[in-house]
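User: Sequence for GlsB/YeaQ/YmgE family stress response membrane protein below. Tokens please.
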Amino acid sequence: MNFILFLIIGAIAGWLAGKIMKGRGFGLLGNMVVGIVGAFVGGLLFRAIGLASYGFIGSLVTATVGAAVLLFLIGLIKKA
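Assistant: Structure tokens for GlsB/YeaQ/YmgE family stress response membrane protein:
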């Protein structure tokens, strides 16, 4: 059950990050990948600045912030 919740949070976070970063989205599987990688990036960023998140909403915020940062960095690399 936790794995399914993890995938749902990843999909929602990837979709939200795509909307925040003015993207078109990447489809269900692409949004999941962006959201899951974003969860790791967000976790690293939040720990580095001393923040913690708990529960579904906290996990969603962390993953969304991380995914938005990831998309921003990918955009910088693609322009270079």
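The longest helix spans residues 55-79.
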